[in-house]
Design goal:
10 strands, mainly beta, elongated
Amino acid sequence: QVQVVESGGGLVQAGGSLRLSCVASGSIGSIYGMGWYRQAPGKQRELVADSMKGRFTISRDNARNTVYLQMNSLKPEDTAVYYCNADVRPVHGGRSLYWGQGTQVTVSS
């Protein structure tokens, strides 16, 4: 069993910053990659790209199976549920994509 858990979301004023964390744990053989997505109300889930519009930075701590999303200069349109996924080879073999439950980020104007 593999678990993916995000944390660090919350309410922030426009122009503020947040740092999200995502940890993968459980029966992990190896991790091929981890990434961030977001889904705003009424919109499709989209990939959060590194240096998105020059405001977001993604970093990874391989030793801790953790990926971070540093978000600066936040705007109300960044309001969304932020999801993390992990592309994993479990210890029993195979390969699967695991998703976290998401963390809410709300940016007030």
